[in-house]
Design goal:
By secondary structure, the protein is mainly alpha-helical. The chain is about 60% helix and about 0% strand. The protein is built from 17 helices and no strands.
């Protein structure tokens, strides 16, 4: 697919610049907090790999027997966060977290600013499309925050999927970067390979549909087919090899009862959209993106502009959505191309008097609302660079001073920090 800018691009470009600047200030000044304790588990895993020059073959801080499918499938992420922590402490980790989040938004912006439906007649004006693109970008900025704020490898997966969308649709010359980047990603968070394969498969399905049934027409996927095919196999380029294939489908028993994000998700939660300009708008933006993707696909279908790859991506997202709460974020990044097509199709309408002024006013309003909501969502800033208020500091200090080693009976949540502080005792 050939991509064109949405003219005029100024409102989208300026809005994105303001949004990125404001979010950078908020995120770079936000400390590492114990929203989730897995960070310290990853720090210990990275320290283990760095010390032993080998991957652990089982959980090394547990007296419970590991399940047979146990794999350290995120060893490269663990090594990365360990190296950053050694280099610059928690401040370096805070910067890394912000850069991954901002890079994800940059990929979404790059996609939205360059996408345009194929074979759509008319010269795009861009006023309606640019305004809608700004609103979509602000919604993504809010919707991704709860997950990206936690230092875990999932954020890298979201970034990678958004990058793949941009490369395949708008930068096909970069396509040969995908196989090596897939190898890197697979060692960062390879357990999500089914989602990444769904992305590659959706675009390859479009290529083969065009090659088999539309031989007399240009095939926009032809230039990216081999990089995508190689990327399918690149997910296996990990120390786990073929053992990785079973991992996503063989989790610990009853895990969903103790980890809330693994619980099944009722779809009716997305029919309640909070529009209050406070932290509740984060949840509202998430619901709006889910519903917007579905209704956007229906609108494109009615206009006969819903392409096969978009339909496949939406189907994959809808299959994942009710399985687990965490798959809400996978749905959002999978369906970005639908929003890109909707915004670009909207840009083809004829301009009306006063459109530019309204576009600028509402675009800047969307940015201001997104930044206000982000500030409310984060709340009062704890101590920088790390907030220790929810960490078991006293327990660890006591055990280190008085304990001689042995087993620790603990609830699951603070387990990562207990490992980090007490290993190898």
């Amino acid at each position: 697919m050939r991509c064109f800018p949405l003219p005029p691009r100024a409102s989208l470009t300026v809005s994105f610049g303001l949004l990125l600047t404001g979010l950078a200030v908020l995120w770079l000044s936000w400390p590492v907090t114990a929203i989730d304790f897995d960070l310290w588990y990853h720090l210990l895993g990275g320290a283990y790999v760095a010390e032993h020059r080998a991957l652990p073959q089982g959980p090394f801080f547990s007296y419970l027997a590991a399940e047979k499918t146990w794999l350290d499938y995120y060893w490269l992420y663990q090594l990365l966060v360990h190296g950053l922590h050694e280099l610059g402490g928690y401040a370096a980790l805070s910067v890394f977290r912000a850069l991954v989040f901002l890079a994800s938004l940059a990929c979404a912006h790059a996609y939205l600013s360059r996408s345009r439906p194929a074979e759509e007649p008319g010269e795009p004006d861009g006023s309606g499309g640019s305004l809608l693109a700004v609103a979509i970008l602000c919604a993504y900025a809010l919707g991704l925050q709860p997950r990206d704020l936690v230092l875990r490898p999932h954020a890298v997966t979201y970034l990678f999927i958004l990058f793949v969308h941009h490369v395949v649709n708008c930068r096909p010359r970069w396509a040969w970067s995908l196989p090596p980047l897939t190898v890197v990603w697979a060692n960062v968070h390879g357990v999500e390979y089914p989602v990444v394969l769904a992305v590659f498969g959706a675009y390859l399905a479009l290529h083969f549909r065009n090659a088999l049934f539309r031989k007399g027409e240009p095939n926009p996927m032809r230039s990216v087919r081999w990089p995508l095919i190689l990327s399918l196999y690149a997910v296996l380029a990990t120390p786990a090899g073929l053992d990785l294939l079973a991992k996503p489908f063989a989790g610990p028993p009853f895990h969903e009862l103790t980890v809330l994000e693994l619980a099944a998700q009722p779809l009716d939660r997305f029919f309640s959209i909070h529009l209050f300009p406070d932290a509740r708008l984060v949840e509202g933006a998430t619901a709006a993106l889910v519903l917007g993707a579905v209704f956007g696909a229906l609108w494109l279908a009615l206009r006969r502009r819903l392409r096969l790859a978009r339909l496949a991506l939406l189907a994959a997202g809808l299959a994942l959505l009710p399985m687990m709460v965490r798959f809400t974020f996978e749905f959002m990044v999978l369906t970005l191309p639908i929003f890109g097509d909707v915004a670009a199709l909207r840009a083809t309408r004829r301009p009306q008097a006063g459109d530019a002024r309204v576009t600028w006013t509402l675009s800047l309003g969307c940015v201001a609302l997104a930044l206000w909501t982000t500030s409310a969502f984060l709340g009062n800033r704890p101590a920088y660079p790390v907030d220790r208020s929810r960490l078991p500091e006293g327990v660890c200090n006591f055990l280190l001073a008085r304990g001689g080693g042995g087993r620790v009976y603990n609830v699951p949540n603070p387990g990562g920090d207990l490992e980090w502080r007490l290993y190898p005792k």
